[in-house]
Specification:
With 285 residues, the protein is mainly alpha-helical. Helix content is 65%, strand content 6%. A hairpin with a 2-residue loop joins strand 1 and strand 2 (137-138). The radius of gyration is 39 Å and the shape is rod-shaped.
Amino acid sequence: MSSLVVNTNMSAIQAYNNLDATDTAMSTAISRLSSGLQIQTAADNPAGYVTSEALSFQSTGYQQAMSNAQDTTAMVQTATGALNQITSILQTMDQLAVASANSATNDSTSLQANEQEFSALQSQINQIANSTSYGTTQLLNSNQTFTVQVGAFAQNGATAAGGNAYQQIAFSISAVTTGALALNTTSVSVANAASASSAIAAVQSALSLVDTIESSLGATQNELGALVANLTVGNQNLQAAYSGMVDVNMAQEMTTFSTDQILMQTGVAMLAQAQTAPSLILKLI
């Protein structure tokens, strides 16, 4: 009858140890259920915590990269819209130049009217080129190159995790002022048949240049769209991986909690029984 001792009640000690372990497990289950997380601090899972934090900041980087690409797409669309208007103006200018080059039917009055309209259209091109902006950034009045951060890491970052040469893209927008298009009012006119003939070549060359700029921006817009789609899928996968590592399985944890509740109740009852066992010694007296 080894349990019938007074100074050292091993049954009570064992029952207490089991109850303490159950209480710790129950506290952990309550913390997880109340937070929805199985990793809340580094103490819960040091390696898992480091990995989950890396996934978290990469996901945040992806989200911002998507925002960058979408904002840039809006900027490109702004420039493209203005270029469409300039294309329409150039087509009208080409029509005027072709009309004025016909010396057989034109008189000075019709040539003067064409020249006035042609000059007004040149001014419209400058107005559009100098007023088109995205925020405070003017887009069409000078040759510019833009860099877009489309990745979560540093470009060519030798010391940055994941750093490589594919975190940024660059694209250019050329100026479309009359000066840049070689359509200055002082050098191109339709005031007479000879100058109108020269204007035809100048306007058509400008049209070709604007078409090239629009084509390049269209390719950039498609590239940005593909990047957004890829980043969206990548971010979804990152979030799924993060969730699988950090989020608690509520059903499984609730089952554990219910088991701990039962063990807690029985543990308290058994500790009480173990603590009263030495009192049986009184029956021997």
